[in-house]
Queue: 2 jobs
Job 1
Amino acid sequence: MAVGTKRDGAVPLTLDEIRRYQRQIIMPEVGGVGQRKLLDAKVLLIGAGGLGSPAALYLGAAGVGTLGIIDFDDVDMSNLHRQILHGHKDLGRPKVESAADTLHDINPDVQVIGFREPIASDNAMDIVAQFDIVVNGSDNFPTRYLVNDACVFLRKPLVDGSIFRFEGHATVYMPGSGCYRCVFPSPPPPGAVPSCADAGVLGVLPGIIGSIQAVEAIKLILGRGTPLVNRLLIFDSLDMEFREVRIRRDPSCPVCGDEPTITELIDYEAFCGGAAASVLS
Amino acid sequence: MRLTVNGKPRDVDAARTIAEFLHAHDVNPQLVAVEHNGRIVRREQFSDIELTEGDALEIIHMVGGG
């Protein structure tokens, strides 16, 4: 059966789609059926920054049909050494607009839904509910806990990534198999985190971690391979080493455990000098 | 006592428990998760778990940037 042939009621691929995605369609793990899954998928990116940039670029290029991007920030000169969705010409523009332009330039067929607002307890559930998978490129702990909890409540897969200086983490939290709070039950106390603005980050680092997140999101959509579930991948770019730590659901987890104590979203105070989203944004 | 810490061998003398190990290495226990011989240890148990020769520890720092 030809790739573009209608099957199982699915919308057939167009000639342009077959041309655009041929190099991945020819792989049996993808095929026309997998490409249709990608085109029908809705992925939400938390942040259009260091991690969100490569993740969005590769997901969009791969033909993930709908990309939601939530980021209230504008493009700043200090973003450009790592946030490759944005260019010098975009300075001062809202990141969601700059991101949409870049993504449409690469793949005009991707629908980009921009949310130019902070994510918080009053909008997180509504926004997350519209998508199949969440890719976390958040730049601060309050948002990380908020997004984790929303994904637990809505039973959405969370493709998690984080970076700091030369180190990056990546893992996938699937509903029922553990969450961020199983590893880190509560946010760091205010003042305990190193000054975020001064900490710095290697520009390439989010390129690697964000790309890993894109791979994991695509695998989840296709239902192929072994997802990075119950494994926390730790990347040390200075020593060029990957380590893996086994993680699992904690029955006493405050949000996904047997007797959860957290049953609604929490807006934690910002930890980093009061500017929650300025951290490596 | 010889431990494996974050994949590398390390001689540790001054620490009998995970909590003492973290303290000896100036690590704030509120900013890390600890895996002890392949199991994530709950923070409240850091003082209870005694280290023995050959144990493997992974100290996982909270990383929040994006």
Note: Chain A touches chain B through 45 residues (CB under 8 Å).
Job 2
Amino acid sequence: MSDNIKDCGGAVLDLQGGSYLLSSPLVVPQYWGNLRIIDGTLRAAPSFPAGSYVIQVGAGGCNPPSGQGSCNENVGMSGLTLDASHVAAGCLLITATMGATLDASSACFGFTQIGIHIAGGHETMVSETWVAAYFWDSPSKETNSATGVLIAGNDHFLTNVICFSSKIGVRLTGAANLLTNVHTWNAATGYGGVGIQNEMSQNRFGASYYLRQPESLRASDSRPVHSAYSWVLPRFQQPASYKRRADCFQRRLLPGQCASSLW
Amino acid sequence: MLAVLLALALASECAAYTHLRVPHAKLFPAGLRPATRAAHSRMMRTWSAPARPNAESPVVAPTAFGADPTGKADSSNAFGLALAALGVRVYPFVVADSAYLSHSRSAGALRPAPYV
């Protein structure tokens, strides 16, 4: 594999549908690749480190010879329920990894800071996944300060992902990421929640649906983003500056028409 | 003449793809073979890739290293051991039966349980 990443031969860590309690993170070490973690539940114990994630793939300080900035490759996770138990900072941290996936009816719950944190790397794909700091029957869904998904890197993909009951559904601080069929709702509606917070250029949002949050799309970067075929169902009256963006979605403009004119 | 040329072209095209044909036994391993021609046709129309990727990859079960699948006891150490085994590609709990590795991921009925 690239940059002498260890090839684990496609081996599978199969949780066999069990529910496991962890007092420390499950760490996929730096420079490991070609492995899977599948089918089960991992739950943070009360003694779990508050600043850690239930699963941590890779680590910082990645400086491979190629200069690509990825020290793990092809790490797949599917069919997982990750419960941070309102103890751990987050459920999944993917650092400096090329080609990680989280898919197949996975879910991330109970995080205090960030549900899924993609830090650096390239081409992580998250799909068929539900992310929520709190369940919908909890009063805390209105007041928490957590972020569902933080993409702090370039060229990552969110497809068919639902983010609810966090203050921010998806936050992007990297560029050239693609979000399609992303549904955000109950984004801490009593606390200034945001569906998608975009802080970088060249990100694209398609066919997404933003429901019941004060602000559906916040773009703090003035450079163009691309958004099309999306829809907003606001819960509250929105400020005029936000309404323009909502109009852009609701009119279902063709690709490109919302890109440079409004943001 | 045109019909002959078309027939030759079609035959050539088919021959070119012969190497891509998948043996029937490979498509439908033991226990999954259709009983009738109609069932076979139906399966061929609806067949797709195995639901799980890497269907023939070696499997590491954390329970084999002492993990508690009921979620009552702390399984952190067991997961550390399981992941270490995965990393060095040593699977002492997997029975020495290549059929297990071949089929356990693709056919649940053939999967030995429990692992330990």
Note: Residues 49 and 85 of chain B are 29 Å apart (CA to CA).
